[in-house]
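stage 2 :: seqdesign
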C-alpha cells in the first residue's frame, strides 16, 4: 500500500519575488525530496540553473517548501504537468514533467535555438571580457594544470591516448570532411616535397619495365606497400611484388657535394 500523504506535488517558492519551482515525488516522499533539493542547491550543483542562481542571490532563508497536492504515484507526473501548465513556474527549466535525460532534440528545434541565440540575439553579442576577467580565466586554467604531465595528450608519446582512450576512437570523418582534407593535402607530400624524401631510384619490373622516381612515387603509381619499398631500397629485402631496386640516383644535394669534393 502506498502512503498517499507522502507522495504528490510540491512547490519551492521565493518569498521575495514570488517565483516558483514545481516538482513531484512518487517514491522518496516530500521531506527527503526537499532535503535533496537543499543539498544540491547548497553544493551549487542543482539541475535548474535559474533556481540555483536565485538561491545564491537571495539565500536559503527566503525559500519555502509547500505541498500542493497529495496523490498516488501513478498520476504524479500527470498532476505535475497540470500545475506546470497552470502556475507557469519560472524556475522550471523543462516545461514537461518527468525526466528528459536521453531525449534527442529535433533538427527543427535545434535550428530555432540557433536563430534565437545568433548575432544580436546572443546575450554576449558586442561584449568582451574585461582584462581582470581574462586574467582570472588564465589563472584558473593554470591552476588546473590541464596540459602538464599526464594530463597532456602527448604524454608518453601518445600511448595514453591510444585505442579506446583516443577521443576519436570509433568515429569516422564525413565524406565532406574527407574531400576537404584531400584537397588540402594534394601535392604536399609528393616526390621531392615529402619531408622524408632522400632521392630518386631506378626500379625494374619484368612487365612494367624501368621506373625512375622516389619511393612515394612508385608506391602511389603501382599501389605498393611503402614499408616494403623502403626495406628494398635499404637492401633489407630483394624485391616486392616483382619490383627490384636497380640503383639509387644522386640527388642535387649529393651531386653538389660530390662536385665540391673533386
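stage 2 :: out
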Amino acid at each position: 500500500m502506498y502512503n498517499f500523504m507522502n507522495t504528490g506535488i510540491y512547490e519551492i517558492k521565493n518569498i521575495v519575488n514570488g517565483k516558483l519551482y514545481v516538482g513531484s515525488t512518487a517514491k522518496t516522499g516530500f521531506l527527503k525530496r526537499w532535503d535533496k533539493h537543499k543539498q544540491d542547491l547548497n553544493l551549487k550543483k542543482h539541475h535548474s540553473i535559474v533556481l540555483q542562481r536565485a538561491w545564491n542571490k537571495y539565500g536559503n532563508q527566503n525559500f519555502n517548501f509547500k505541498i500542493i497536492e497529495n496523490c498516488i504515484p501513478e498520476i504524479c507526473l500527470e498532476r505535475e504537468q497540470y500545475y506546470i501548465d497552470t502556475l507557469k513556474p519560472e524556475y522550471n527549466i523543462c516545461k514537461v514533467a518527468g525526466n528528459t535525460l536521453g531525449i534527442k532534440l529535433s533538427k527543427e528545434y535545434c535550428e530555432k535555438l540557433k536563430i534565437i541565440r545568433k548575432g544580436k540575439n546572443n546575450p554576449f553579442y558586442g561584449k568582451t571580457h574585461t582584462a581582470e576577467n581574462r586574467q582570472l580565466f588564465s589563472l584558473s586554467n593554470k591552476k588546473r594544470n590541464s596540459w602538464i604531465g599526464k594530463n597532456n595528450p602527448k604524454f608518453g608519446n601518445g600511448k595514453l591516448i591510444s585505442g579506446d582512450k583516443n577521443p576519436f576512437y570509433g568515429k569516422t570523418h564525413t565524406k565532406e570532411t574527407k574531400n576537404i582534407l584531400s584537397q588540402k593535402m594534394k601535392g604536399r607530400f609528393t616526390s621531392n616535397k615529402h619531408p622524408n624524401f632522400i632521392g630518386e631510384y631506378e626500379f625494374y619490373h619484368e612487365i612494367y619495365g624501368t621506373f625512375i622516381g622516389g619511393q612515394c612515387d612508385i608506391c602511389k603509381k603501382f599501389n605498393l606497400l611503402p614499408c616494403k619499398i623502403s626495406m628494398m631500397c635499404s637492401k633489407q629485402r630483394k624485391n616486392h611484388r616483382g619490383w627490384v631496386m636497380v640503383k639509387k640516383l644522386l640527388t642535387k644535394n649529393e651531386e653538389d657535394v660530390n662536385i665540391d669534393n673533386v
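stage 3 :: structure notes
- Residues 4-87 form a domain with the GIY-YIG endonuclease fold (CATH 3.40.1440.10).
- The longest strand covers residues 63-70.
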